[in-house]
Amino acid sequence: MADQIAVTARLTDYIRDVSLREDEILRELRAETADLPGGQAMQVPAEEGQLLALLAGLVNARSILELGTFTGYSTLCLARALPAGGRVVTCDITDRWPAIGAGYWDRAGVRDRITLRVGDACATLEQILAEEGPGVFDLVFIDADKANYPRYYELSLALVRCGGLIVVDNTLFFGRVVDPEAQDADTEGIREFNARLRSDERVEISMLAVADGITLARRRPA
């Protein structure tokens, strides 16, 4: 039986050639983001944005929560996947970087589907839970600071409906999760999250060895 293959740069190019459907608006936003400090590392790959849109469609999402907006590439992918009347609530610690994406959201005609919440993510999630109650989102995408992943996950699990999906980015964290010398808060946060999820019977899980590691957690029906 074949094991996981090593994805070389040449193979990545092939995958993008035969499967990626990134249009001009997305390409321009990705290019502008790449020129920012840390932009290439912090932005989701184009094929991951496409996967997010596909997942949103598969769960028939009408209400999506995103933790970590940055310049809004993934936000745009998710908003485009929604039907008329759908919403993306995207959360970031600052409005500096999302302001870059806002013009692209306008060009794509989905600005009215997107609500930006600025501030501490845990406080924002607690506020949404108090305002709207549990189970109000069909899909949650977590891509914020890694040290707080365990806290974000618990709040997200309360906010996603039964049968809904939580998508968690960077769960392999540049390979640092298996480096015993990596003891920083972000790596430890990812390790704690991964270990906790493994035994969490409230969800069905699958960790994908693509991009920087993507974990899918479907909240089990009640």
UniProtKB/TrEMBL annotation:
Molecular function in Gene Ontology: O-methyltransferase activity; S-adenosylmethionine-dependent methyltransferase activity
The protein's matches in Pfam families, at most eight in alphabetical order, are given as: Methyltransf_3
Could you tell me the superkingdom of the organism this chain comes from? Bacteria
Task: List keywords of the entry alphabetically.
Answer: Methyltransferase, S-adenosyl-L-methionine, Transferase
Q: Return the InterPro entries for the record.
A: Cation-dep_OMT (IPR050362), SAM-dependent_MTases_sf (IPR029063), SAM_O-MeTrfase (IPR002935)
User: In Gene Ontology terms, what is a biological process of this protein?
Assistant: methylation
What name goes with this protein? SAM-dependent methyltransferase
